[in-house]
Amino acid sequence: LSVKSNRQEVTPRQSGVSQTAKDISAFDFGSCSRQHLQGGSQAMGRESFDALMQSANGRKVFREYLKSEYSEENILFWLACEDLKLESTPEGVEEKARVIYEDYISILSPKEVSLDARVREIINKNMVEPTAHTFDDAQVQIFTLMHRDSYPRFLNSHFYRQLVSDGAATS
Fold it and tell me: Which InterPro entries match (predicted)?
């Protein structure tokens, strides 16, 4: 991506992804029962996954689960995108965007995340002059993948049961 061309602004879709990674010290089990986490409705399930991803402890346990599934790169990519959004200098944004591209987007990377061709094209165009939002569409796609694919299995795992029992013990 060292070739510069006329910049074509590609605006990512608005996403439900938070603008910053919130560090909530523990997952709030007082308001999120297992039934609520599994969600009787899709909206409840989405809220529960959002709560998990906003909790430092929840992300840690979910990351361990993803590692056991050989898909840890998904949460690592999501976290890297959240970190990129916190960068305030253009130089810092450019450097972090390059690292994210090399680590998670490049087809040569062992940690490549699964993205469709449309999103890859948007990223390639945006990498000419990267911004803090260069990977927004990709981040939404990976967030959705984790929510729909990995999260339901996580709810049935020993990782989740341990998270619940640890949370109940500290509540």
Answer: RGS, RGS_sf, RGS_subdom1/3, RGS_subdomain_2
> In this structure, how many other beta carbons lie within 10 angstroms of the beta carbon of residue 60?
13
Residue 153 lies in a domain: yes
Report yes or no on whether pTM surpasses 0.85. Answer: no
What are the tens digits of pLDDT across the range 45-69? 557 999 999 999 999 999 999 999 9
Q: 127 by DSSP, 3-state: which? A: coil
Q: Contact, 26 vs 163, CB < 8 A?
A: no
Residue 28 lies in a domain: no
| Domain total of the chain | 1
Q: What's the pLDDT band for 165 if we cut at 50, 70, 90? A: confident
Measured distance CA(17)–CA(149) in Å, rounded: 17
- Report the distance separating Cα 101 and Cα 11, nearest Å: 18
Q: Can you give the pLDDT at residue 45? A: 52
- Can you say whether the dihedral through the CA atoms of 54, 60, 63, 65 is positive or negative? negative
Gap between the Cα atoms of 120 and 137, Å rounded: 9
Whether residue 98 contacts residue 123, with contact meaning beta carbons closer than 8 Å, is answered with: no
